[in-house]
UniProtKB/TrEMBL annotation:
<feature type="transmembrane region" description="Helical">
    <location>
        <begin position="25"/>
        <end position="46"/>
    </location>
</feature>
<dbReference type="InterPro" id="IPR000160">
    <property type="entry name" value="GGDEF_dom"/>
</dbReference>
<dbReference type="GO" id="GO:0052621">
    <property type="term" value="F:diguanylate cyclase activity"/>
</dbReference>
<keyword id="KW-0812">Transmembrane</keyword>
<feature type="transmembrane region" description="Helical">
    <location>
        <begin position="79"/>
        <end position="98"/>
    </location>
</feature>
<keyword id="KW-0472">Membrane</keyword>
<dbReference type="InterPro" id="IPR029787">
    <property type="entry name" value="Nucleotide_cyclase"/>
</dbReference>
<feature type="transmembrane region" description="Helical">
    <location>
        <begin position="125"/>
        <end position="143"/>
    </location>
</feature>
<feature type="domain" description="GGDEF">
    <location>
        <begin position="224"/>
        <end position="353"/>
    </location>
</feature>
<keyword id="KW-1133">Transmembrane helix</keyword>
<dbReference type="InterPro" id="IPR050469">
    <property type="entry name" value="Diguanylate_Cyclase"/>
</dbReference>
<feature type="transmembrane region" description="Helical">
    <location>
        <begin position="52"/>
        <end position="70"/>
    </location>
</feature>
<dbReference type="InterPro" id="IPR043128">
    <property type="entry name" value="Rev_trsase/Diguanyl_cyclase"/>
</dbReference>
<dbReference type="Pfam" id="PF00990">
    <property type="entry name" value="GGDEF"/>
</dbReference>
<protein>
    <recommendedName>
        <fullName>diguanylate cyclase</fullName>
        <ecNumber>2.7.7.65</ecNumber>
    </recommendedName>
</protein>
<feature type="transmembrane region" description="Helical">
    <location>
        <begin position="155"/>
        <end position="176"/>
    </location>
</feature>
């Protein structure tokens, strides 16, 4: 996992759940309240000389409740939001066409437009509102073809006030999104710093516990079987004692670059201690993980640390274990750690499973 991938995972952990929850709760509230109001309005218009309005309101009510039920069945789908925007488009133009009760339908356009703006995402909402109002304007300027009749002064004032309302609503939404992006950017940078090892730029133990393992638990099908490899640089203390800690830091960076070359883009290399690393292989069996660990071991052995007049051979020991499900993740991490000690006791520079 490169630095940008780490940022993407942190970003998703920070914003996806909160934003998805906000949009979902907004959809639920508007659907239940709006559907109930439309049902009441349909009932109040029963017996009037406007059966088209009653039928349209009834259809809108049914579709609204069906749409919110669909969103409960498929909570991660965005389709329900776009269906909600289409329901608003249909309802607004029915109100314009029929005039509503005693030609008062235009008064309900404002809240419905606002619903369309906040339910649909910002950029698609601009298209939705444009199409909605475009159809309404065509009808208002061709009243001989619709059931309702509006005085010219009402039409002009309605369009002017609606245009002002749309501009203010979109400006408000835009500033809200911009300020939210700035806050997310600042929070993301703080999260990066807290979850990244400053020397190697690798994810640290905090990232694994607070972000990666949480994601794995929430979506086990994507991550399991999850193989873990604990890596420890052999005789690292000798390097620090012989060349100093500055060279030791360069060796850690050298080892980091070597390991990153040996793993897949979906894998995670994290620094969990002084000279200890944890490599995680999502959707990898024990056999696959052992092969990848052996590849890392061989690359590290084949690439000595060279700097100035220093040419120091580097080796590392590896302990491998695999969690088949999320229930035995922590047990597998402990098993990998135990296997590392077996590798070191067996002579180092080897992979133990």
């Amino acid at each position: 996992m490169d630095y940008s991938s780490l940022g993407q995972l942190l970003r998703s952990a920070q914003q996806d759940e909160a934003e998805a929850k906000r949009r979902k709760l907004t959809l639920y509230f508007i659907s239940y309240v709006g559907g109930t109001i439309m049902a009441i309005m349909a009932w109040l218009n029963v017996g009037t000389n406007n059966p088209l309005l009653v039928g349209a309101l009834t259809i809108s009510t049914v579709v609204i409740y069906a749409n919110v039920a669909l969103s409960h069945v498929f909570p991660k789908s965005d389709v329900c939001y776009y269906i909600g925007g289409l329901i608003v488009l249909f309802t607004i133009n029915v109100l314009v066409y029929t005039g509503g009760l005693n030609n008062t339908g235009l008064y309900f356009i404002y809240p419905l437009l606002f619903v369309q703006i906040i339910v649909v995402r910002f950029k698609p909402a601009m298209l939705y509102v444009s199409v909605t109002m475009g159809l309404a304007v065509v009808m208002l300027f061709n009243q001989e073809k619709i059931a309702a009749q509006y005085p010219d002064e009402h039409v002009s004032r309605f369009l002017i006030s609606t245009f002002c309302f749309i501009c203010i609503a979109f400006i408000g939404e835009n500033f809200w999104h911009q300020s939210r992006k700035e806050m997310l950017k600042e929070n993301l940078e703080r999260m990066r710093q807290a979850n990244t090892d400053p020397l190697t730029k690798l994810p640290n133990r905090r990232f694994l516990e607070a972000v990666f393992f949480e994601k794995a638990m929430q979506d086990p099908a994507t991550y399991f079987p999850l193989s873990a490899v604990v890596v420890d640089i052999d005789h690292f203390k000798r390097i620090n004692d012989s060349y100093g800690h500055d060279v030791g830091d360069q060796v850690l960076i050298h080892i980091t670059d070597t390991m990153k070359k040996a793993v897949r883009s979906t894998d995670v290399v994290a620094r969990t201690g002084g000279e200890e690393f944890l490599v995680l292989f999502p959707h990898a069996t024990l056999t696959q993980a052992v092969k990848l660990a052996e590849k890392m071991r061989r690359l590290i052995e084949e690439r000595p640390f060279v700097a100035g007049d220093i040419n120091h051979p580097i080796t590392a020991s590896f302990g491998v274990a695999t969690a088949l499900t999320d229930t035995n993740l922590h047990a597998s991490l402990k098993q990998a750690d135990d296997n590392l000690y077996k590798a070191k006791n067996a002579g180092r520079n080897r992979v133990m499973e």
